[in-house]
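User: Teach me something about this protein's shape.
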Amino acid sequence: EKKLRGEQEREAGEREQKLQDQLEAAKWEVEKKKQELQEAVKREQKLQDQLEAAEQKLQFCEKQRDTERDTADRKLLAEKELRGKQAQEAVEREQKLQDQLKAAKREAQEKKQELQEAVEREQKLQDQLKAAKREAQEKKQELQEAVEREQKLQDQLKKLNTAAKAYLEGPLIADRERKALWDLIT
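Assistant: First, the predicted structure itself:
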């Protein structure tokens, strides 16, 4: 019985030692797993930090790209607006020139009309001047002829007066008749 108890105690001691060894091994395993977990957490944190940095860089790049695209779009829009404005100004300049050309043509037509009227007036005045000169020449001719007729009549009258005086002074007329004729001639 003593031997049996000794055997049981020895077996119990072995079991306890075995369990103690298993416990130590489990503790060591737990410590190892804990260490591995910490390293894994660190790696995860590092990867998380890298991921956040990459995301921030991506956001920055996207923002920069959007800004550049907005800038490019605004530049294109500004260029388009400028081209549109320049085209509008060119159209307005062309229209203004067209209006000026129409006005110049209209003015030229009016001046041409005025010139034509002036030429017609001048021609009319030239005709009137010719007619007036012709009429003056005719009047001059008529005057000349009238002067010649008057001179002729003056000469005839002088002759008649001379003849009448001679008659009146002659012996063939009575005093009363002589006086009447004398009054008539003088």
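Now, about its shape. The CA atoms of residues 73 and 95 lie 32 Å apart. The first helix runs from residue 2 to 169. If you'd like, I can walk through any region in more detail.
User: That's plenty for now, thanks!
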